[in-house]
Amino acid sequence: MTAPHRHALYTVAQVRALDRAAIDGLGIPGYELMRRAAAAAFAALRRHWPQVRRIAVHCGPGNNGGDGFLLALQAHEAGFEVRVLALADASGEGDAARARAACERGGVAVRRWREGEPLPEAELHVDALYGTGLSRPPGAPASALIEAINASGVPILALDVPSGLDADTGHCPGVAVRADLTVSFIGAKRGLHTGQAPACTGRVELATLGLPETLWQAAVPDAHLLQPATLPPRPRDAHKGRSGHVLVIGGDHGTAGAIRLCGEAALRAGAGLVSVATRAGHLPALNAARPELMAHAADGPQALEPLLARATVLAVGPGLGQGAWGHALWLTALDASLPLVLDADGLNLLAREPRRFQHDRPVVLTPHPGEAARLLGCDTATVGRDRFAAARSLADHFGAVVVLKGAGSLIAAPGGRLDVCPWGNPGMASGGMGDLLTGIIAALLAQGCSAWQAAGLGVGLHARAGDRAAREGERGLLAGDLLAPLRRLLNGLDA
Predict the structure, then answer these.
(1) How wide is the angle at C-alpha 204 spanned by C-alphas 200 and 209, nearest 5°?
(2) Is 396 annotated as belonging to a binding site?
(3) Which pLDDT value is given to residue 140?
(4) 243: annotated binding-site residue?
(5) pTM of the prediction?
(6) In the chain, what are the domains?
């Protein structure tokens, strides 16, 4: 059985507290934890690259370097050809210094790396430079060494955290190691799963170092990774009225595609009925392409009133625009007090005219970083420096569940609860993907999910469908390609 804490995400401070609890509370010496970390990483190296016999290990002055020295010693004892490059002539005090001494005493030569020198010939590089100990840009000569490692053209294994990556936020303030595999120790660091981190970590594995489950029982995680989920089967006497009626509002001149994608996603995600309120000129194309959508001309707020009376959930924003037409429909929708998913220009209008939603109204906001910055009154770089803080701030400020989209999408609720999506791929960085997500979440709200449930389940289904669609290649992936795998996932036909 998988331990529950393996899906838990911790801050750097929390992992350091766990480490200290293992030393002080369980009586496990720090050097023994270092030895176990090295052994776990070396086992992962042999498992993932069984043909490798010549490695270069790059060690910093702290405990992450100590892990590297002990891995180098274990590899040497196993018959590997090992080269060790250190950033300093000596490691710091304590366990790291002891590990370096053991490495050298065991017959492994340690050479200080100097900027401009070539790296040793190796089939694999091991990054043990900084780990969690760095939240600023690496200085010289470490930055030059990191760039050389990245340019080596051979696989890279990172110990605990790729050096240069902020393990709390997923932000890289400067150059960072781009690993193929990261073996993280004791607790999963939240920053390894969002923002710039996926480009640096490669695959992430957690090694709990043989510590007892009691270690994590008193620790309250900062966040959790989403787990695969879907809706239960429908009862045999189901009818469309039980699955809700989504009203999708948007599609100004020239953006019929956005509103169609949103509406069709709501249908494929199981909404019983889906109506579309859009420009009159879009109706012939919508009726011809997807007659199951009930398309209506909405030239102004008055035309929305009868549609709002029949709807149970609103999806507002795809192709809406920020002109007078879109603004009038937006105001009417927000005043309707129905469960709501707000995206795209619906969010840009909210940034212009902020309001806090009532706690008893299910509302989900789905900003990308640029929209999040406008909502917070900052720039996109500020959002990127701490996505966790941005998502939580948005949720608390607007009184809504927030999906901060991007690599490692975050789902945040007022009060601080937060989940991280571990799925998705670069092929999904294309037009229409956000429109699909809006429709999916709205359909889940219509079928009885809470705002928190609909956001988490919707993000997970959307990302997992994207991964299945990308099996035929990431480049050229279209939003519409997700609809078939989405249907299979939602019905439990493709785990």
Answers:
(1) 130
(2) no
(3) 86
(4) no
(5) 0.95
(6) 4-224 (3.40.50.10260), 240-490 (3.40.1190.20)
